[in-house]
Amino acid sequence: MTLDARLVVNRPGFVLDIELTAAPGEVVALLGPNGAGKTTALRSLAGLTALDDGHVTLDGRRLDHEPPEHRRIGVVFQDYLLFPHLTALDNVAFGPRCRRVPRREARDKAREWLARVGLSEHVRKKPRQLSGGQAQRVALARALATDPKLLLLDEPLAALDARTRLDTRAALRGHLASFPGATVLVTHDPLDALMLADRLVIVEDGRIVQIGDAATITAQPRTDYVARLVGLNLYRGRAEGTTVRLPDGFSLVTAVPQEGPAFVAFPPAAVSLFASRPAGSPRNTWPATVTTVARHGDALRIELSGPIPVAADVTPAAAVQLELEPGRAIWATVKATETTAYPA
Amino acid sequence: MFLTLPLFGLLWRAPWSTLPQRLTEPGILAALRLSLLTATLATAVSLVLGVPLAWLLARTEFPGRRLVRALVTVPLVLPPVVGGVALLLVFGRRGLLGSWLDTTFGVSLPFTTAGVVVAEAFVAMPFLVISVEGALRGADARYEEAAATLGAGRWTAFRRVTLPLIAPGVAAGGMLCWARALGEFGATITFAGNFPGRTQTMPLAVYLALEQDVDAAIVLSLVLLVVSIAILAALRDRWVAA
Amino acid sequence: MRKTLIGAALAAVLAVSGCGDSASPAASASAGAASGNLTVLAAASLTESFNRIGKDFEAANPGVKVTFSYGGSSGLAQQIIAGAPADVFAAASPATMKTVTEAGDAAGEPRTFVRNQLVIAVAKGNPKGIRTLADLTRPGLKVALCAEQVPCGSAAAKALAAAPVEITPVTLEQDVKSALSKVKLGEVDAALVYRTDAKAAAGDVEGIEFPESAGAVNDYPIVALKNAPDPAAAAAFVTFVRSGPALDVLVDAGFQKP
């Protein structure tokens, strides 16, 4: 149940061209901003959008010329697309029925799946009588009841409110863990990707910009988009020892020496702000101007302009003391030991 | 107001005193029975042919689709009498298909009840096709995609997902179609002729009654109106509201 | 009033018989009286002949414009009773005319101006070899009649009863023209239609005379209408239709003199 695919879809003003693999039992997340082509990639895997080039191979079998109904690929759609005229039970039994399973057997199977997602009491309900979280679970059961070799999830949690999302995400994680086939998950929410996926594939503008596990991606983002997703300040420059020169002339000092093209990343909490130029230790010190002040969890996130754009997290108390408001001139420092540098 | 005034005209002029004995005339019952039968059969034919056609128009791309859609509306624009002549030219004894049908199967449509059904279906089917196509366009095509990912072929997806979703549209279109078939006159009298019990439907009976006896025509019209309104009202509650 | 009417009628007759053209003082004087628009409602079977007669009448009465409305006699009668603005009514049966006179819409007595007889219309060349009314009873032969509610249908019923011949038609058409067109299109093998209709369609059909038709001769009455916007012209037209030259046109079309 290994997926191996190259997906090329040409659209006016947009080209999707990505390679994708997934091993049995593996969960791969396609993560990227809206319009990056994630959903197109998913649709082309399912056979709902035709490929202009490339291939889809599942278990060594070429599928790219097979119609969707012969691919044995289960899909959970973003808005679930539960058939409104059928009960939850018949929605789930639909797939087996299409595979010529006798009605009774199909219903038994559906009942079993609904029990597994914890909806035994709701088998007779129509989709409009279900809550968002329940509908999501019916959609999952419906996709899994066809015994797919590959499971595709399109923004499976996007339609849910924050509270339901938390519970559903945990439950989904459990179901994906027990699913023997490969799973490809599309999301723009880094938390979903980090929690559900074994491997992240970052897609921007139709291309893959980074592949890795959660730890690598969060520690060493390679694009602004990823850095912002994981909450890091990210800069790209040229390393000479512990100094990384950025293209506009500014340089940052890091702890670990390197040579050649390099990224420097540090979290907003590593940035300290001072009303006047601090004396002594920090190697990275520069004057900056506050552009915005916004709540960020318990802290305040301060966006600064200056030689480099940077985000800093400070406590509300510090913000009051420093009189932080847009337009305020300030000094920013980052300790070399709090930065991460890695080859670009 | 404008639409219902003629109805009041009919009610006002109706020969109420002689109504009971007029209603029991055997001709009326035969024409009414034939009208209901042929309109229902014509609707069935239209459903069988029209729904798949509407699906093709709404869901697929093929060369000349715009032209086909325009052609579907031809019977709406064509004067029904001309439609009847056109049907004769195709299905008549000397017609393109008719002569073949006649020599091969010995089947001749004109002057038969089947001919009435053909004429009515020809005129009434566009109402169904247009209304079902509209319903299909309004329905979310992604349900069909979802069905496909669950292993449903196009026909299964259409039958088990799309059709139930557009059922109100199909019902409404079917009713329009039925009502139009019930009132069909021009194409029927031209193609199927007029013979009591076999091809004389209510509208034909009304027309001929007008030649001699206006009161009889009014009675016939009222019967047609009452029956059709009753049936449409009953069906509407059952299907469209649901 | 009466004087003008007679004058107009006289002028019309004179004009057509060639005694006076538009220069004749009598004609121009009466034309002044009978000027304007004349609306004539006439049975559909009169279409071809009345179109010609109308032209002749206009030529004889400069300034008069004749407009015809042709249709089934009964339908036209209903229109007149309902108050349609018309000057003259020419019907295909006395029964239909009676509905108009009984409603009090006629000015004066209707006069029969021509008669029409039934013939058997068959396809050109008479492929089925039909000679008599009795031939129509042959099995497998498709025959169209008019519905009994319309004049050609009642005439056919009369003729068949007089014969007596019993035939089973495949259809009872709503008027004589549609019965005829079923023959033209080859959908039926024969139809009982008026001689005039068969003659008008001479390119496509043949009319076969049969003696029994004498028992069902159809009289065509004409009358000026009471509510005629132009009574003088109306009366002039009625007189004109009954004059020699107009009759010639009608006989030409297959009608018989009364």
TrEMBL record, chain A:
Assigned EC number: 7.6.2.9
Record organism: Paractinoplanes ferrugineus
The protein's name in its UniProt record: ABC-type quaternary amine transporter
Top-level taxon in the UniProt lineage: Bacteria
All copies of domain Mop, residue ranges: 279-343
Gene Ontology molecular function terms on file: ABC-type ferric iron transporter activity; ABC-type quaternary ammonium compound transporting activity; ATP binding; ATP hydrolysis activity
GO biological-process terms attached to the record: molybdate ion transport
PROSITE patterns: ABC_TRANSPORTER_1, ABC_TRANSPORTER_2, MOP
Matches recorded under Pfam families: ABC_tran, TOBE
Enzyme class: translocase
Bilayer-crossing regions: none
Entry GO CC: membrane
Keyword set, alphabetical order: ATP-binding, Cell membrane, Ion transport, Iron, Iron transport, Membrane, Molybdenum, Nucleotide-binding, Transport
Domain ABC transporter, residue spans: 3-230
From TrEMBL, chain B:
Keyword Glycoprotein: no
This protein's UniProt keywords: Cell membrane, Membrane, Molybdenum, Sulfate transport, Transmembrane, Transmembrane helix, Transport
Domain ABC transmembrane type-1 stretches: 32-235
Topology relative to the membrane: Multi-pass membrane protein
Record protein name field: Molybdenum transport system permease
Predominant location: membrane
Transmembrane segment boundaries: 36-58, 70-91, 111-132, 161-181, 216-235
Organism annotation: Paractinoplanes ferrugineus
GO MF, one annotated term: ABC-type sulfate transporter activity
Function: Part of the binding-protein-dependent transport system for molybdenum; probably responsible for the translocation of the substrate across the membrane. Part of the ABC transporter complex CysAWTP (TC 3.A.1.6.1) involved in sulfate/thiosulfate import. Probably responsible for the translocation of the substrate across the membrane.
Compartment list: Cell membrane; Membrane
Family per similarity comment: Belongs to the binding-protein-dependent transport system permease family. CysTW subfamily.
Quaternary structure note: The complex is composed of two ATP-binding proteins (CysA), two transmembrane proteins (CysT and CysW) and a solute-binding protein (CysP).
Top-level taxon: Bacteria
One Pfam short name: BPD_transp_1
One GO CC term on file: plasma membrane
From TrEMBL, chain C:
InterPro entries on file: ModA (IPR005950), ModA/WtpA (IPR050682)
Sorted UniProt keywords: Metal-binding, Molybdenum, Signal
Cleaved signal peptide residues: 1-22
Transmembrane segments: none
Pfam families in alphabetical order: SBP_bac_11
Gene Ontology molecular function: any one: metal ion binding
Binding residues annotated for molybdate, in chain numbering: S45, S73, V176, Y194
Biological processes, Gene Ontology terms: molybdate ion transport
Keyword Metal-binding included in the entry's annotation: yes
UniProt record similarity statement: Belongs to the bacterial solute-binding protein ModA family.
Protein name as annotated: Molybdate-binding protein
Organism for this UniProt entry: Paractinoplanes ferrugineus
